[in-house]
Write a structure and sequence with these properties.
This is Heat-inducible transcription repressor HrcA. Keywords: Repressor, Stress response, Transcription, Transcription regulation. It holds the Pfam family HrcA. It comes from Kineobactrum sediminis. Belongs to the HrcA family. This protein has 344 residues and is α+β, with helices and mostly antiparallel strands. It has three domains: 75 residues, Arc Repressor Mutant, subunit A (Orthogonal Bundle), CATH 1.10.10.10; 150 residues, GAF domain (Beta-Lactamase, 2-Layer Sandwich), CATH 3.30.450.40; 98 residues, Enolase-like, domain 1 (2-Layer Sandwich), CATH 3.30.390. Helices cover 48% and strands 17% of the residues. The strands form three sheets. Strands 7-3-10-9-8 form a five-stranded antiparallel β-sheet, sandwiched between helices. Strands 4-5-6 form a three-stranded antiparallel β-sheet. Strands 1-2 form a two-stranded antiparallel ribbon. Helix 1 packs across helix 3, helix 1 packs across helix 4 and helix 8 runs antiparallel to helix 9. The longest helix is centred in the C-terminal third of the chain and has 20 residues. The radius of gyration is 26 Å and the shape is elongated.
């Protein structure tokens, strides 16, 4: 099963077969490969090489077809040893540079990165949202709305502004809300949001018996505001519909399972967490990801940073027969550009 002793002829034939299958999505036969590979050999010789590659686990024959398609192991050998990565299109670079603008907030940048990955690669793009421990409270404001509703304006890190509405047990005056915001800012500005919420809950529990109503109301407002932060999405997915483009009717069931996995999030988050612990581009082909639902798909990821620490992971999910030579550099440069924007 080792690929170390694969002959040059076998490598050329495997490379030609994978590239043809990626383009056409059909099993590739010996006569097609005879023309595709450009080798001075007979079709019988190519059939013998294909049989050997199949025995070693790099190819398989679907539906008793005379042609072969790559296995996950065949794609892995192709990506690791035979792939020639293309230069990224300059128009795509210009789009990335324009959209991943440092003047945007972190949440806007993450959303843009997810959409751009999908558009440029024609696959599904995903980006994990920066973990709450990377968010620091700079300032909070509370503004009264009608009824028992309050508009919360959170300024996070340097300039990211988040607006949300919370519901309270009673209406608050503008003066009460201004005083509550002043208290929260005085006590908690500059601290991680997750840490702030923990401190607030502890203070409310420990001091409930002797805390004054002003302090209680302020901490209650802050707790509700930050609890909304915890409920945000763990990752963003864009372009799921693009996965329908080249799918056959018999594969629709597997695609539904993948869409269900997008909703459940647990498995994909575990995989992305693994990716965040390794530098550079990571490629999981088929069952290498460790999840049955990804058996017919590949995941290509790269971590992004704020210049000093890893904030999350971005990447692409698509069929195993994706154009790796184009997708890999797009994922790499998008991660670098997103990191640069967040660093500024």
């Amino acid at each position: 099963m080792s690929s170390a002793d694969l002959s040059e002829r076998a490598s050329i034939i495997l490379k030609a077969l994978v590239e043809r299958h990626i383009r056409d999505g059909q099993p590739v036969g010996s006569r097609t490969l005879l023309e595709e590979a450009g080798l001075p050999v007979s079709a019988a010789t190519i059939r013998n090489v294909m049989s050997d590659l199949e025995e070693r686990g790099f190819l398989h024959s679907p539906h008793r077809s005379a042609g072969r398609v790559p296995t996950s192991q065949g794609y892995r050998l192709f990506v690791d040893r035979l792939l020639q990565v293309e230069s990224i299109d300059q128009a795509a670079v210009a789009t990335l540079r324009e959209q991943l603008n440092p003047d945007k907030s972190a949440s806007e940048l993450v959303q843009s990165a997810s959409s751009l990955l999908s558009i440029i690669t024609a696959q599904a793009g995903l980006v994990t949202v920066p973990r709450p421990d990377t968010h620091h409270l700079r300032q909070v404001e509370f503004l009264p709305l009608s009824g028992n509703r309050v508009l919360v304006i959170l300024v996070v890190n340097e300039r990211e502004v988040q607006n949300r509405i919370i519901h309270t047990q009673r209406p608050f005056t503008e003066v009460e809300l201004r005083e509550a915001a002043a208290l929260v800012n005085l006590r908690f500005a500059g601290q991680p949001l997750a840490s702030v919420q923990g401190q607030i809950l502890r203070e409310m529990k420990e001091a409930r018996s002797h805390i004054d109503s002003y302090m209680q109301a302020s901490l209650d407002l802050a707790s509700k505001a930050l609890d909304q932060e915890e409920s945000e999405d763990d990752y963003l997915v864009a372009g799921e519909s693009r996965l329908l483009g080249n799918i056959s009717p018999e594969d629709l069931g597997r695609l539904r399972e993948l869409f269900d996995a997008f909703e459940r999030k647990k498995d994909l988050l575990h995989l992305l967490e693994r990716c965040s612990r390794a530098p550079g581009v990571q490629i999981f082909i088929g069952d290498e990801a460790g999840y049955e639902v990804l058996g017919d798909y590949s995941v290509i990821t790269a971590p992004y940073t704020n210049g000093t620490r890893i904030l999350g992971v971005l990447g692409v999910i698509g069929p195993t027969r994706m154009a790796y030579e184009r997708v890999i550099p797009v994922v790499d440069i998008t991660a670098r550009m997103l990191s640069s924007a967040l660093s500024h």
